[in-house]
Amino acid sequence: MSSKSEYVKNLYVLYSEGNIPKITESLADDMETMACSEHDASISGWKVFKGKDGFLEMLNTLVTGSAECGVPVIESTFENGNEVLALGSVPLTRKSNGNTVSIPFIHRWRLSGEGKCSHMWEYVDAHAWARIFV
Which of 15, 70, 82, 121 could lock 91 by a disulfide, CB 3.0 to 4.6 Å apart? Predict the structure, then answer.
């Protein structure tokens, strides 16, 4: 990849293709992910996931909670040093009634010196998140 932004954008492409093994290869062994741990009405379910297995556990929450996440759409990225901000949105569908809301997010990625992802922080629009459970 010619830039860190393109490297991060490619992770979303891999996700949309279901190529989780390739994503895992791009993660540092000590990857740290701060993200929602339960896709339900409680936005207080945030936690830090540790290591590659933690990242996979976080991905698993995207399909096992009371709402299911669709494929994220990246609208823009910003690069600064070893960090990349990915701004986008993701459709979230409540399983009980099919209600879908587009949730704006910012993902903050940090790349290690080895060119692997060492951190990912997720920030979401809490108001949009709450609307799906109304």
Answer: 70
Q: Quote the CA–CA distance of 8 and 95 in Å, as a whole number.
A: 29
Distance from the first to the final alpha carbon of the chain = 42
Domains detected in the chain: 4-131 (3.10.450.50)
∠ CA 67-73-75, nearest 5°, is 135
Tokens standing for residue 121: 């922080």
**Position 119: which residue type?**
H
* Residue 31 confidence (pLDDT): 94
| Span 98-118, pLDDT tens digits | 888 898 999 999 998 788 999
- E strands present in 22-133: 27-36, 46-50, 67-69, 73-80, 83-94, 100-111, 117-124
In 3-state terms, what secondary structure has residue 16?
A: helix
C-alpha 63/C-alpha 130 separation (Å) is 18
Would you state the pLDDT for residue 80?
Answer: 94
